[in-house]
Structures are given as structure tokens and as C-alpha cells.
Amino acid sequence: MMHYLKFTFVTTAILLVVASTIAAAEPADTNYDEKKVPPYELPKLLIDKAGQSVGRSEWDSHRRAEILHLFEESVYGKTPKRQLSVRYEVIDSDANAFNGRATRQQIAAFFGEKQYRIDILLYIPNKTKGPVPAFLGMNFYGNHTIHSDPKIIQRGKKKARGSFSKRWQAELIIDHGYALATIHRDQVDPDNYRNGFTDGIHPLFYANGQKKPKPDEWGSIGAWAWSLSRVLDYLETNKQVNASHVAVIGHSRLGKTALWAGAQDPRFAMVISNNSGCGGAALYRRCYGERIHHMFKPLGYWFCTNHRQYQKKEHELPVDQHMLLALIAPRPLYVASATADRWADPKGEFLAAKHASPVYDLFDTSSLSGHEMPKPDQPIHSTIGYHLRTGKHDMTAYDWRQYIKFANRFLKQE
Question: Annotated catalytic residue: which of 74, 220, 227, 252?
Fold first, then answer.
């Protein structure tokens, strides 16, 4: 009898843990029913604060800046204007990576008086002439996880070496003539709030006595985006990389980051969002899948504190994500979704890209204006690219083949 009771207790405990995990992943009020998407009206892209219609010149002169400011105030927070001193130290350079097909470089970047360190991992193809275009993205669990290369410096032991190599496809990228640069998100700002904003780069910018960002100042996404621009700074000093042909890329929350980095920094020649969902490429006002209040309960530190006031009030936001995507125009933009990733709202991601099209049309580029949402695995490669991949929330070889093909058109102009 005691054995039975013990078994029952353990089994019940396991079920409760599983149930709580599922509930944490997908809260009870998550909507996956298109019939329950509320009626909504998107903020106007091409009507400025004064209520005037906007053309190409007005977009360049003030409307783009208006929208960027609204995102700073209500979503991601303001990025500090102050520049830190930086020192780069190449701590590893090996031309025999990937069986001689690539040169691996590892660069330590030291910022500010405190010499805050961020490690850059860079692979450059050997069989190319002149500076090469590049993909730049942030990784989740450490540079050593993107490939099994034993020479990659390992900082932290949370994940095994090469454990996310399928997500990165480093050798495929190299074999197509692109460099690949990456940094670890937690070196910039740890993806948790256990220590507040005290254990990442934020304190380097605090005023005297400040202990956390102000309500309209940057959260983690802002900090991560800042760091991607700092890696681009380094690439501009590397003669083997064509820094004017760099695509910034990210998956999931780091897809949100790539979009915000690309919106703020026009030096990025291309922006790629992979399954970025709410706060990324998906429309807030659809209230489908992940929503603001879902993110804020465990992950509010991603955004500025001001964003909190729009929980369950998405319709009151002065912006929506089609406006974020429009900030990237006229540069090439790629948005990707996955069929099983309802949490990220694939339809909302596509619609945001489609509703960003009027700004791309101002620049006479090929947009998604005339397109309907494609069937799975049928990519659209206009200046705004889109695909819906069969499968789950991930970044796969299929995704990378599309991004490389897209980049061939715009970064290599093949």
C-alpha cells in the first residue's frame, strides 16, 4: 500500500510539473482561433503626426524619425547616445577551420573604462576574392554551441559544444561565400532578471546613483541590438569582410532584436527575422498567440517599462509592427514563419510585412503589396521576402537556404 501511495504521489507530482510547464508556455487565455481575432485598425504609416499625407521626401525628412521615436517611447526604449571607448584584441586566427575552407577569428571587444568584454566569433571563407558579405546574428547559449569546432572559446557550460549547429549551418554559409559573425546574448545582457539590470552592459551607461533603466530607456532587446551594431563597428575594420553588405539575422526573441537593430542602424544592408512573433514581426493588434501580458509576466525586462501599460490594451499602442518593418525600407527584409509555431502568429507576421509594403512602394521596390499569404514551403523573394516553413519554432537548413538565396540577389547581386 505504501509503495502504491508513493508511486501515486510521485506520478501526481510529475503530472503537476508537466501541466505547469505547459501552462507557462501557453497561458490559458492564449487565442488560436481566427474567429476570435478582434476587429482592428492599424496606425497609419503614411500619415504624420500633423495629420498630413506622407510621400518619399516626407518619409525621409521626418516621418521615419517620428515612428522610430514612438517605438523608443512605447516598446523597446531609448538606446543611449553616448559612445563607449572600445579596444579590439584578436585572440585567435586560424586559416584551417572547416578543413581549410574558412578562417576562424575570435576577437575580444573591451568596452569603456571597466573593459567590459564581449567575444566575437567570426568565420571567413577562404576561397573568395576580395571582401565578402556576411551574416551577423546573436546566439542563445554561447559561441561554442554554433559549431563543434573544438577551438571555439567556451565561456559558460550550460550547453554542449556544437549543440545548436543545425540552427546555424555555419559550413553551408561559408561554402556559399559568406562570412558568419556571432556573439552570445548573455555576455551582453543575461536573459533573466535575477540580478536586475546590473550584470550586463546597462550599468556602463547609468547616471550617478542610477540602478535601473528609466521607464523610457532600453531593456534587454535594446541592449542586444546595441551590441549587434558594435560588432558591425568591428567588421568595418576587418578588410576581409564587406561591412556594407552585412545581413543582421535573429531567431525568436533574437529575431525581435535583429529587427530593432536593423530599424535603428541603417548600416545593416539586410534584415532577417526568423519566427520572431509578438514584439517582433507579428501584428500586436491581432491578439493571437503570444501577447504583451504573456511576455511581461516572466520577460518584461526585454522591453522598456513603458510597454507594460499596453497589456491587454494592444489597440492603444501608438504603433504596430508593420511600422517597425517599414523602418527597414528600402533595404531588403525577410520575414519567416513556421506552420507549427502558432505562438508566433505566422499570419500576423505575414500581414505585418504586407502592411509595411506602402513604404517600400515609395522607393519603387518589389514589396508584398499584391501577394496573398503563401502556402507552406513556397517562398516569396521580393525586396520583402517571406516564407512559411513546414515545422516548428526553429531555424533550420531550409530557412538558411532561403536566406542565402535572398542574399545572393541583394548582397552579391548574382
Answer: 252
